[in-house]
Design a protein that fits this description.
single chain; mainly beta; seven-stranded mixed β-sheet; 0% helix; 49% strand
């Protein structure tokens, strides 16, 4: 399984970005997916997760109401719409595939990772 994240960049505070994550293989629709982020000097942290069908979604508290996770199983693609960005959102963002079909919240429940895409929010 290969995951390719894209869509990162430099944006001013209050702006928006949409991250995408393309997945190889024919089993994308069978697994939960998630987004994590890692800021310099910090551990990788959970951002959002979605179940295999897209019916269940979960968010880290600081992004609730600003970020939206979604997926298009026909296109093998995961998305993260990020609005009202602030400098605290600056990090490398990673997409990941869970071990099962549900929306996993814990990092060790993910087994495949993309390479990461840098998001920088200027004040």
């Amino acid at each position: 399984v290969q995951l390719q994240a894209s869509g990162g960049g430099l944006v001013q505070a209050g702006g928006s970005l949409r991250l995408s994550c393309g997945a190889s293989g024919r089993t994308f629709s069978h697994y939960g997916m998630g987004w994590f982020r890692q800021a310099p000097g910090k551990e990788r942290e959970f951002v959002a997760a979605i179940s295999h069908s897209g019916g269940d979604t979960y968010y880290e508290d600081s992004v609730k109401g600003r970020f939206t996770i979604s997926r298009d199983n026909a296109k093998n693609t995961l998305y993260l719409q990020m609005n009202s960005l602030n400098p605290g959102d600056t990090a490398v963002y990673y997409c990941a595939r869970a071990q099962r079909g549900w929306a996993a919240l814990v990092i060790n429940q993910y087994e495949y990772w993309g390479q990461g895409t840098q998001v920088t929010v200027s004040s």
